[in-house]
Each structure stands twice: as C-alpha cells, then as structure tokens.
Design brief:
The protein is of the alpha+beta class. 37% of the residues lie in helices and 14% in strands. A nine-stranded mixed β-sheet has the order 2-5-4-3-1-6-9-8-7, sandwiched between helices. α4 packs parallel to α8. The structure holds Dihydroxyacetone (2HA) and zinc ion (ZN).
Amino acid sequence: MEGTICRFCGGMRGNMNNIFGVRIIEEYVHMCHDGVRQGWHERNGGNLTYRMRPEEVAECRPYFKETPGEWVDIGIRAENLKNEFFISTGSGKFLQNVDLEPQNNICVVEIDDAGEKYRIVWGLERGGRPTSEFPTHFMNHSVRKRVTDGANRVIYHAHTPYVIALTYVLPLRAEPFTRMLWKSATECCVVFPGGVGVVPWMVPGGPDIAKATCMLMEQYDAAVWAYHGLFVSGPDFDTAFGLMHTIEKAAQIASIALAANGGRRLPHVITDDNLRQIGKEFGVTLNETILNYKDDDEMYC
Ligand code: 2HA
Ligand code: ZN
C-alpha cells in the first residue's frame, strides 16, 4: 500500500523513515487495536507475540537501539528458537495504549544463540520487559514452530468474556467444550476442525500454565484457560485473530442460547451428522475423537 498515511506516526507508509513504516510493525499494532475494539483487553489484560521473518528483522534493524538491553534468562531453553526475533507486548502495559505510543508499550527482542535468553533491541523506551506470559509464549512458539514446520508465527492471549463465562458452565475438557462451540454456529467447525484444548485453572504467568498449555498446543491451535481467557496460535495475524474471534463468537452464541433456554439441554442443535456433512463439503477433517465423543450427561449437545 504505497502512498498511504500511517495512522500511528502520520508519515507516509512505505517511506521507511521510521520503524512504524515497516509493515509488520504496523500490522502488529493494528492487531492489538482490533483486540481492544472487541473489548478483550481491559487494563493490562492479554498479550501478543510474533516470531519475525528474517526479511522483517532486516527492515526493522536500522531502527534498533545502538546499545541493546542486557541479556535476560527466560527460564526455559528452546533450541529451535535460538537467534530468532520476536515482537512482544510489554509486561504490565495496556494494549489500548499500543497504537498511541508503540515505542513505550511493545518491544522487539532477540533470542541468544543458546535459545535461553532474550535482550530488548527496540521499544519499551521508558523501561520494562516483555509480557509476563513471555515464558509461556516462548515455550509455545517452540512447540508450534516444530509441529507446523515453521508455519506458525503468532501467539495471542486475550480475556474473551464469553469463553470465560462458558468455563463456569461446561465440563473443562476438550471434547464437550469443542462440541458446544462447533454446534454454536455452522461454520465454526471449518475454522477450528482440530478442536480446542482446555487448561484447568492455574496461576497466570507461571511455569505450570506454560507446560500445561504446551502439552495441548502439540495438537490444538487454541487452548481455553479456565476462568481466565483464550490462548491461540496461527501463521499470521489475520488467522490468529480470526481464530480468537470465531471461538469467542461461538461462546457468545452458546452462552446466549443456554441462558435463553433457562440453562436446560438445548431442544435442537447442529447434529453430529450435520458436522460430518460440513466437513465433507468444505474439505476439512474434523477431530474424530471429538466428533465421536458420547456422554449421556452431556446436556448441552
Ligand atoms: O498480560 O493477561 O495472563 C496480562 C495477562 C496475563
Ligand atoms: Zn491473561
């Protein structure tokens, strides 16, 4: 998009006279703003990290600090992330402030050649460090990079209210949770045919939630965090945001339908055969374990 005005810096986009003219930075900032518009990021809630492509690092490099920050131990070693660069939201920073002052609310970090330390090379000009969930993101980037042959680059966590509400109502297991979401709107099973994992309640930012999420991200690209929010990954911002958005919208419909029906078993829903038909028509393979899951106590679907 040559010749457009960047709404963050007021400069000409594509001019490359500052880092905000770099497309990946603009898209990152835009995604933070999109999440804020959805109401998913109260205060400092939520976080976003992106594993940069070498050509994006090269575009940003002229704007890196003359003296990078100190190397900081991540507390986890990920061999397959050594020498990578990530864009990250800042710990304690509000996503609603990212588009106002990206330089004070986000950063670019470089990973060392052992895959166990980071240093800030751009951003957080008034001090700070990457998101409190950085160890969780880092560990999950390592898993998603491996299982997708390098395709996944985005990890996004948001406080999606209807997903959180449903965790108080549905069994905290992948099968019943996914089935409810698949059956909430016709095209959901096309967007997340593999289903969503569910992590029980855990302390945020700690090693336990990082490990539990990693185990699920071996097979799912989305994990619900009970009473907390949603954690997704994807190859690009649109896909990751779209996944978050679709799951949250499904949870919203489910919450409204269940409430409208007085919390009783829904009288009719998208059937398992309907799901199979959609899978066939759209050429997607639905997770068989979830599709064939039967539970007589399953009052929702
Ligand atoms: O960044 O959302 O889970 C604040 C959080 C932690
Ligand atoms: Zn959170």
